[in-house]
Specification:
The protein is an alpha/beta fold and 461 residues long. The chain has helices spanning 38-56, 72-81, 85-102, 118-130, 160-165, 208-220, 234-249, 280-284, 289-297, 309-328, 341-351, 356-373, 376-388, 396-400, 412-428, 432-444; strands at residues 3-6, 11-14, 22-27, 60-65, 134-136, 142-144, 181-186, 204-206, 224-230, 254-260, 263-265, 268-269, 305-307, 447-452, 455-460. The protein is 45% helix and 15% strand. A hairpin with a 5-residue loop joins β5 (134-136) and β6 (142-144).
């Protein structure tokens, strides 16, 4: 049975969906004013893994991941670029999809944009005002009255007094309490018309937190099974979502809260100010996308993920071992036999709070056994279980030779094969010095030759 670590209760709990056999999951997505970074990559890959495992476990899943396409950063960036909000956000949504596709992330079932749900947000704000949980501040913003929601702080595990003293609390003189947060921002004269919507409280735009409460309830219902996101969203964003949704609807919002750990760079927090900030595109210029996915998945999703070129290179070498086993032993069939002992250990790991670190260890056990026994059935288990994680779907030669999906074996590959033929002729004529010279030349270019009973094959070092 699947168990999930619930951030709300701070313990692992048996997963019991609201509707038997069906799961509804919402994950906070990207704010599209720039290219996605490594932290976004981790969120996308982690919850893609969760979605894949839920479906592999027989659940009927509805997966929603939103897009924030209106906020202060977007308005500011569009102004700097001299383009419309829509042009800017469309461009970065397309880039986000390119990055996600490269990482093998399947599209969610629904990908709502905040700007498409403004009416639903206004309706939710109206309910909060009717219940006395929201008020119009002196600056004409509509704010949530945090102290009127008794359970505030439950997700972060902090009391109101502790939160009041926290550095992350924004103090504004127009609020009734510094902890209160904005639900609706009154329009400023210097903002473009495309970010101004008519409302009962005057022209303006929604605050950040309200969008997820409105979109999730519209697409998944007022109460659903799983809500996920990065650890940085636990407070204040997810705390505020709970206050808004439970305050408006009067009952539990989400049953299981999941948060993935931070990405660190050489054991320091990733930050533009430190100069260690990497976009997904930066990393994919140096490493195969499947290597990046494998790097993310071989750590448990709740643990910190320490990025460095050395760690990515180690991940590449490890993934090479798995693909080498599949090259050496042709799988009989990629269908998983779930009654086989390795698959049972894989399932036990994944059912233990999506423990991909242990699941990946099972893949290496299978690779070792396939290499030792030459068993096609063992290779099939390796390929099939890897596929559950979104790994090992390519032809082994394509990965080992550094080709991405759909890339042909032309150009450099043809030149390498020509050198292999010249080496074979040199060996046949007993010119071993020339054969060794060709091998050394290829090795200096990062190409390793392996002589097998079926002939000489090559891979990247």
């Amino acid at each position: 049975m699947l168990h999930i670590h619930n951030t709300l209760t701070r313990r692992k709990e048996a997963f019991v969906p609201i509707a038997p056999g069906k799961v509804r999951m919402y994950v906070c997505g990207m704010t599209v004013y720039d290219y996605c970074h490594l932290g976004h990559a981790r969120v996308m890959v982690v919850f893609d893994m969760v979605a894949r495992w839920l479906r592999a476990s027989g659940f009927e899943l509805t997966y929603v991941r939103n897009i924030t396409d209106i906020d202060d950063k977007i308005i500011r960036r569009a102004g700097e670029k001299g383009e419309s909000i829509r042009t800017l956000t469309d461009r970065f949504i397309a880039a986000m999809h390119e990055d996600a596709d490269a990482l093998g992330v399947l599209r969610p079932d629904h990908e709502p944009r905040a700007t498409e749900y403004v009416m639903q947000m206004q309706s939710l704000i109206g309910r909060l005002r009717d219940k006395g949980l929201a008020y119009v501040a002196g600056n004409r913003d509509v704010c949530y009255s945090v102290r009127k929601f008794d359970s505030y702080g439950r997700l972060s595990g902090k009391s109101l007094d502790e939160l009041r003293a926290g550095e992350r609390v924004e103090v504004a003189g127009d609020k009734q309490d510094p902890l209160d947060f904005v639900l609706w921002k009154h329009a400023r004269t210097d903002e473009p018309d495309e970010v101004k919507w008519a409302s009962p409280w005057g022209a303006g735009r929604p605050g950040w937190h309200i969008e997820c409460s409105a979109m999730s309830s519209d697409l998944l219902g007022e109460q659903f099974d799983i809500h996920g996101g990065g650890q940085d969203l636990q407070f204040p964003h997810h705390e505020n979502e709970i206050a808004q949704s439970e305050g408006a609807h009067g009952h539990t919002f989400v049953n299981y809260w999941m948060h993935n750990g931070f990405v660190r760079v050489d054991d320091e927090k990733m930050s533009k100010s430190l100069g260690n900030f990497f976009t997904i595109r930066d990393v994919l210029e140096r490493f195969d996308p499947e290597v990046v996915r494998f790097f993310i998945l071989r750590a448990h999703y709740r643990s910190p993920l320490n990025y460095s070129d050395a760690h990515l290179e180690d991940a590449r070498q490890a993934l090479t071992r798995l693909y080498t086993a599949l090259r050496n032993v042709q799988p009989s069939d990629a269908q998983v036999d779930w009654d086989e002992p390795h698959a049972m250990r894989f399932r036990a790991a994944m059912d233990d709070d999506f423990n991909t670190a242990e699941a990946v260890a099972v893949l290496f056990e299978l690779a070792n056994e396939a290499n030792r026994t030459g068993s096609a059935a063992t290779a099939a288990q390796l390929k099939g279980l890897g596929g559950v994680l979104g790994l090992l779907a390519r032809e082994p030669a394509n990965f080992l030779q550094g080709r991405t999906a759909g890339e042909s074996d032309e150009g450099e590959g043809v030149a390498i094969e020509s050198m292999i033929e010249r080496r074979a002729l040199a060996k046949k004529s007993k010119d071993y010095a020339e054969a060794d010279r060709i091998r050394a030349e290829l090795l200096a270019s990062g190409i390793v030759l392996e002589d097998t009973p079926q002939g000489t094959i090559w891979r990247r070092a």
